[in-house]
Amino acid sequence: MQVLLPTICALFMVGYCCSATPSEGEVKDALFKARRINRIKDGLDLLERELDTRTTIKCPLCLAHGKRLHSNAKMDRRVNDALLATRFLMQDGKYSLSEVSEVHEIFTRENGETCIINAPTDCNFTSIYRRADGSCNNMNHTEWGMAGRAHARIVGNDYDDSVGTPRTLGLRGESLPNARTVSNVIHRTDGGIELSEKLKLFAMGYGQFLDHDFTLTPEQDAVGDCCDEVSQADTDNCFSIIIPEDDQYQPLFTAGYCMEVKRSSPVLCADLRQQQNSITSYIDGSNVYGSLLFLESGYRMATTPRGNGARILNGEDDNCTLIQTTPGPRQFCSAGGDARINVVPSLTAMHYLFVLEHNRIANAIKDYAYDPVMDATIINAFATAAYRFGHTWVSQGMVLFDKQFNVWQNETHPIHTTFHNPELTYKPKSFERLAYWLSGGKSPETDEFLVDGVRNNLFLNASQGLAFDLAALNIQRGRDHGLGSYNDYRVWCNLTQVRRNWTAATPLPDHDTNMTEKLEAAGYKSPRDIDLFTGGITENSVSEGSLGPTFECIL
After folding, report:
1. Taking the CA of residue 538 as centre, how many other CA atoms within 13 Å lie in the half-sphere pointing to its CB?
2. How far apart are alpha carbons 350 and 434 in whole angstroms?
3. pLDDT of 66-119, one tens digit each?
4. Are strands 397-401 and 407-414 parallel, antiparallel or unpaired?
5. What's the CA angle centered on 446, arms 442 and 452, to 5 degrees?
6. What is the greatest pairwise CA distance in the chain?
């Protein structure tokens, strides 16, 4: 069925009369053709699913069913229609992207999609409470930082087609290396993990909690399974990682194995693809309250008794657990202001801590102010690459400590067994003991390595033959978002540029010789092809810092 898609597109690609900008008729005609093609693709996807006889679908992230925030499928389809129409106008009409962008209002009127959020005009600036969706925080720009805003870009997009197709090509038009291959060469540990003499695991625990306070990029919901034959070719919605050959570090990853990656939900900005932040961009406790106006009643600001202690409120049902590891009924997961509260028990413990400490913290910071000329909107490269350096802090296991910072009753659990598994939170004084572990345990060093628990065994379900690689996902997500290369961001940061060729005397500034050789061995044809996440996390640290100059600049 894959061969049908180019043929279908060709049938509808007809010439346009060239002028300074597309006419309203040309835009309508392009949108009509795009809708017809995309509905045919939708039908093929549905047919493929109906004919699929597999009992196991190799999509590890599908296991996280209700834990990932999806967008509105109808909205995703309308944006995809507009993006395809833009490509028609550029390819057949010979218009430039800037010329198509000049008639963006026609797309908005005819298609109904735009990334522009109108500034709220009903703000009550005398209220002592902020709005849960982040609006009206800034008196002059009431929409800044509010939920639903498109991520900001500090470097122009590097989509293959300049409109929305993922970045797959390098400087010379050659293919970028497979994300799993880069992960194996660069981000794989050689056994032991170097522990930091400065950082405790609380840096990881609070860092994850903080991340969930100001950034959440939803995934598209137009396609259900991005690993079926038709969807793998649907680059508007899917960008899965296909294993090129049998993997020596994770036996489940055989040649052709599909790590499902649904593309981030698109929003239409000046007729090219952008991504949005579904929560407020402020550090405002939205992961405690929620980021939606109708959820701001404060019902989450409570605990419930359990035995001789208390725990955060339970969710509505018990279907959040990915894998049942003990006999009997599933344990209920917890409810919080952010849907990711149950990713790992240590994160749930952080939510519990901030519910308990809420009033004290609120009183302590009530008189703090922020810079009113600073737009709080999250930068795409920050959310998609730079802030993900914290993944190198993830420990190989999760442990319950006692007050003396010793392991309590041999409660040591491999990290991959804790994903979306609330069982640890039901142990006696579990949140307290998790806090002791976060406070007393040493963090892995800040470097390029991710432990096997997240690099080989993320969301592992061995009985179903499913697993995922977090490092590969970070690389693939950057390409999905059309982030520029590592060198593009060095240029923006006024740092020494990366050289074009590996044969140059010093092809990679701020990298030692060994790392330079490894990056070439990972398959990058030019140093300027290197992805931002990998290039940034492998830099030599700045003086008195943990990160290199590029990530320090972006952060």
Report:
1. 27
2. 9
3. 344 545 778 888 899 999 999 999 998 889 999 998 888 888 888 877 888 889
4. antiparallel
5. 80
6. 77
Q: By C-alpha distance, which of 387, 438, 383, 455 is closest to 205?
A: 438
- With left for phi above 0 and alpha for psi between -120 and 50, is residue 146 left, alpha or beta? beta
* Burial class, 113, CB count within 10 angstroms (exposed 0-12 / middle 13-18 / buried 19+): buried
Q: In this structure, what token pair is assigned to residue 289?
A: 């309250």
Could you tell me the pTM of the whole model? 0.91
**C-alpha pair distances (Å), 464 with each of 55, 56, 479:** 9, 7, 28
The domain spans of the chain are 4-145+197-374+386-445
Res 2 pLDDT > 60: no
Predicted confidence at residue 318, as pLDDT, reads 61
Q: How many beta carbons lie within 10 A of that of residue 371, not counting itself?
A: 8
What would the pLDDT profile of 505-548 be if each residue is shown by its tens digit? 999 999 999 999 999 999 999 999 999 999 999 999 999 999 99
308 exposure class (CB count in 10 Å sphere: 0-12, 13-18, 19+): exposed
Q: CA-to-CA distance for 505 and 256, rounded, in angstroms? A: 38
Cα-Cα-Cα-Cα dihedral sign, residues 450, 167, 216, 339 = negative
Under 8 Å between Cβ of 460 and 467: yes
* Structure tokens that stand for 218 in this block: 């939803």
Cα torsion 332, 418, 216, 490 to 10°: value is: 170
What lies within 8 Å, CB to CB, of 26 at 6+ separation is 16, 17, 89, 93
DSSP-assigned letter for residue 175: B
Q: What is the pLDDT of residue 392?
A: 97
Q: Tens digits of per-residue pLDDT, 236-283?
A: 999 999 999 999 999 999 999 999 999 999 999 887 999 999 999 999
- For 102, phi then psi, to 5°, come to -65, -20
DSSP letter for each residue of 223-286: -S-TTSHHHHT-TTTB-PEEP-S--SS-TT--TT-EE--BPBPPEEETTEEE-B-SS-SSSSSH
Cβ proximity of 250 and 458 under 8 Å: no
Q: Is 478 helix (H, G, I), strand (E, B) or coil?
A: helix
- What is the rounded CA–CA span in Å between residue 554 and residue 352? 31
Identify the CA nearest to 480 among candidates 378, 384, 379: 384
Tokens representing residue 283 in the block: 């550090």
> Rounded to the nearest 10 degrees, what angle do helices 24-51 and 73-91 cross at?
130
pLDDT over threshold 50, residue 146: yes
Residue 441 falls in which region: left (phi positive, over 0), alpha (psi -120 to 50) or beta? beta
Distance CA 27, CA 22 (A): 7
CATH, domain range 4-145+197-374+386-445: 1.10.640.10
